[in-house]
Amino acid sequence: GLTTARLLADAGKQVLVLEKHFKFGGYTHTFKRDNYEWDVGIHYIGGNLHKPNSFLRRLFDYVSNGNLHWARMDNIYDRMVFPDKTYDFISGKGAFLETMISYFPKEEKSIRNYINLVDQVSKKSLSYYANKALPGLLGSLAYPFMSKPFLEYAGRFTKEVLTSLGCSTELIGVLTGQWGDYGLPPSQSSFGVQAMVARHYWEGGNYPVGGSRMIAETIIPGIQSNGGKVILSCGVQKVMIKKGSAIGVLLDNGDEIMSKMVISSAGVKNTFEVLLNDENTLSSKTAPINQVEASSGYYCLHIGLNKSAKEIGLNNANLWVYPGYDHDKNLENYLSDNKHPYPVVFISFPSAKDPSWDKDHPNSATIEVITVAEFEKHKKWEDKQWKKRGDEYESFKETISQSLLESLYKQSPKTKGHVDYYELSTPLTSRDLANYKEGELYGINHTPKRFQQKWLKPQTNIKNLYLTGQDIVTAGVSAAMMSGVITSSAILKKNLMKQFLH
User: Fold this and answer.
1) Cβ neighbourhood burial of 435 (10 Å; 0-12, 13-18, 19+)
2) CA-CA distance, 1 to 18, in Å (whole number)?
3) Nearest-CA neighbor of 327 among 214, 182, 201?
4) Residue 362 CB: number of other CB atoms within 10 A?
5) 462 band by pLDDT with thresholds 50, 70 and 90
6) Is 447 in contact with 437 (CB distance < 8 Å)?
7) One-character DSSP codes across 237-252
8) Residue 118 CA to its chain's centroid (Å)
9) Mean pLDDT, to the nearest integer, of 467-475?
């Protein structure tokens, strides 16, 4: 939303950004307790951000006026922890390849083929996404040529593609060890998203200096300096439609704001099921929203430690902890009976990633421990208010918190005895603060079917209503920013990608 606003403001449009939450940035905002501060959704960003000429770096530099700075993570950015062995993901495609071959010498050919395929599929995704920016008829005519090469693989399941390359269960388990970054295990996810995420991190991980709130904080001034307005705590109740055209929005407080164009970055489910939810607009003209489903919810335990990362000896690699190599089975076991181990536990060390942390928060550190959570399990408290859900809910949360602390101590024993504060967010927290109906993290699920939805693009069937955000591209900050470029290109009828690609 912010990227779209910045690009349109630069093109001379009058822009108004309405944010429902009391903080800017969606899943990039942070929150504070005592001396601690945590990210709610950003744990690392890939994509060559250390290279000033890379696409993503140029885009970030542009929207932030060069005020957003990046710290590169250590050479090992992800560590996959299985019961019998640990595998490191190392920066640099060549180094990654060599390391994987050293772990699986007998599968060298499969690994090389996989790396080549990931490269190819990621490159093919560019024309698939560029097609989304093309207007009506032109977009439709070009769609088969521009999308087919990517969909050939994005239309298949990750597990099926990796099995066809001859990968063993163990190798599949390791190569898809980042499945938590897009929310689906190998036999449910599209190989398109696996390829894009894997390639995104080949050059390692990066972290915004000062924490993820710096993303919104450095983008907003550029919108304002062009006469744009950005307003907090301003929820939209519905998009107003007249004779098949969007004419403005009705706010939660009853005010109406008229505009020539409405752009929703609230996610496609919210847009069609909530903001357009009235008889006049729910005709066959709106998107086939039932063709996509919401992604999973999650628990995140935000932990504050009373010593610095250095003193405790924490490095900044993320840990991905798994009970076994078959991610699908791990997930299935856990969902059928929560007594089974968590299918994935992701442990992130934000204060160790941020070089400015120690200066602003001396003698302290933060950790986030994340796992899968089902919205269903929290239904009985869904009508209660944030922070006022009662004792039963609090004790339920305490049980989860303790089990996640156990996971942390097992992987990082030195943290024991230094935990000074912890607080758990559940799918209800995400629902209330990020406004996703079921507290989902990644908008809509990254299945093969999702990538085959031709209507997931900026233009909708309602005139002057446009979409932007992770649902029209794919999960994550970089993809959401890219959707801002695609949406702005569609509105301005001009290829804005060119200025960021060298």
Assistant:
1) middle
2) 10
3) 182
4) 9
5) very high
6) no
7) EEEEEETTEEEEEEET
8) 20
9) 95
Report DSSP letters for 88-132, one per residue: EEESSHHHHHHHHHHH-GGGHHHHHHHHHHHHHHHHHHHHHHHHH
User: Whole-angstrom Cα distance, residue 285 to residue 271?
Assistant: 14
**How many helices and strands (H and E) does the chain possess?**
18, 18
Helix (H, G, I), strand (E, B) or coil at 413: helix
Neighbours of 135 (CB within 10 A): 12
* Euclidean distance between CA atoms 61 and 58, whole angstroms: 5
Among the listed residues 443, 442, 453, 444, the one whose alpha carbon sits nearest the alpha carbon of residue 151: 453
CB 485 within 8 A of CB 282: no
DSSP type of residue 272: I
CA 279 to chain centre: 32
Give me the pLDDT at residue 283, please. Answer: 52
- pTM above threshold 0.85: yes
CB atoms inside a 10 Å sphere around CB 402: 12
Residues 6+ apart with CB under 8 A from 297: 372, 373, 374, 375, 426, 427, 430, 438, 439, 440, 441
- Nearest-angstrom CA–CA distance, 422 and 38: 11
Q: Rounded to the nearest 10 degrees, how much is the dihedral formed by the CA atoms of 141, 142, 143, 148?
A: 130
Two tokens at 298?
């999650």
DSSP code at position 380: G
Per residue in 29-67, pLDDT (tens digit) is 999 999 999 999 899 999 999 999 999 999 999 999 999
Q: Is the pLDDT of residue 284 over 50?
A: no
Contact 468, 487 (CB under 8 A): yes
**CB 52: neighbour CB atoms within 10 A?**
10
Residue with the two structure tokens 């595998």: 87
Cβ-contact 440, 295 below 8 angstroms: yes
* Nearest-angstrom CA–CA distance, 330 and 340: 8
The reported pLDDT for the residue numbered 434 is: 80
In the chain, % of residues over pLDDT 90: 92
Do you know the residue count of the chain? 502
Spatial distance between the Cα atoms of 394 and 245, rounded to a whole number of angstroms: 46
